[in-house]
Write a structure and sequence with these properties.
By secondary structure, the protein is an alpha/beta fold. Strand 5, helix 5 and strand 6 form a beta-alpha-beta unit. The longest helix has 25 residues. The protein has a seven-stranded parallel beta sheet with strand order 3-2-1-4-5-6-7, sandwiched between helices. It has a single domain, classed as Rossmann fold (3-Layer(aba) Sandwich). It contains seven helices and seven strands, in the order E-H-E-H-E-H-E-H-E-H-E-H-H-E.
């Protein structure tokens, strides 16, 4: 019987790559989305045609709305039963120095990047009771640079949550995190944007999705690994000074 994964923010970008990667390895996948219904439905259709012996579905939820977050996993489990893997990939990424951060921006970063994963981890533990959780942190967790102050704090909190939850929920549930670095350009930016950023890191090149996907494989295959953070960032975390 195929294992099943729920991926948040799964209709585009890194989330979509994770979905396609796990599908290629025989997983059933539940594609979470917020506003990208068309992309999510199209992805499910494509995967269903490509892998007819596996199950794919999509589920909407606004991760900034705690009611919708808390309905997500109980709703899935009530319809299809417990699943095996939760990937907290969805995030919002807004630039703002601490002195310039409005309360609404702060709240949104914390709600989507930290509170939603907290609630989903809790509900996975209660309703699924065993399996794996992978949280997407950020190489910024090693830095105190404040140009993305609220975002960075939300990811620092998520990493601390990863360790706390790994301690409480072992051995039935393993929880680990991945910290990407220079991966994909923001919407509207081209390859030059990433190349400029990559000049500042040890590996001198963007990583793309591949290091992240390989990190997922390593976490899933190493059943003695929990409470760990894998830096898929080309060594960027090594040079963070502030």
């Amino acid at each position: 019987m195929n294992q099943t994964a729920l991926i948040t923010g799964a209709s585009k970008r890194i989330g979509r790559a994770v979905v396609e990667h796990l599908a290629g390895k025989g997983w059933n996948v539940i594609v979470h989305y917020n506003r990208s219904a068309e992309d999510a439905i199209s992805l499910v259709q494509q995967l269903t045609e490509k892998y007819p012996k596996q199950l794919f579905s999509s589920v909407p939820a606004n991760l900034a709305n705690s009611h919708e977050v808390q309905s997500l996993i109980p709703g899935i489990v009530s319809q299809t039963g417990p699943f095996d893997l939760l990937v907290n990939n969805a995030s919002v990424f807004d630039k703002s120095y601490l002195k310039e951060t409005p309360e609404k921006l702060f709240d949104t970063q914390m709600e989507v990047n930290f509170k939603a994963p907290f609630l989903l981890i809790r509900d996975f533990a209660v309703h699924c009771r065993k399996g794996n959780i992978i949280n997407f942190a950020d190489t910024r967790v090693t830095s105190n640079k404040s140009n993305f102050a609220a975002y960075s704090l939300s990811k620092k909190a998520l990493w601390e949550l990863t360790k706390m939850a790994a301690l409480e929920l072992a051995p039935e549930i393993r929880i680990n995190a991945i910290a990407p670095g220079v991966t994909l350009a923001p919407a509207g930016e081209g390859g030059a944007y990433l190349q400029n950023l990559a000049r500042e890191i040890p590996m001198k090149r963007p990583g793309g999705n591949d290091p992240i996907l390989k990190s997922i494989d390593y976490i899933l295959e190493n059943n003695y690994l929990t409470g760990q953070l894998l830096f898929a960032d080309g060594g960027e975390n090594l040079s963070k000074n502030g």
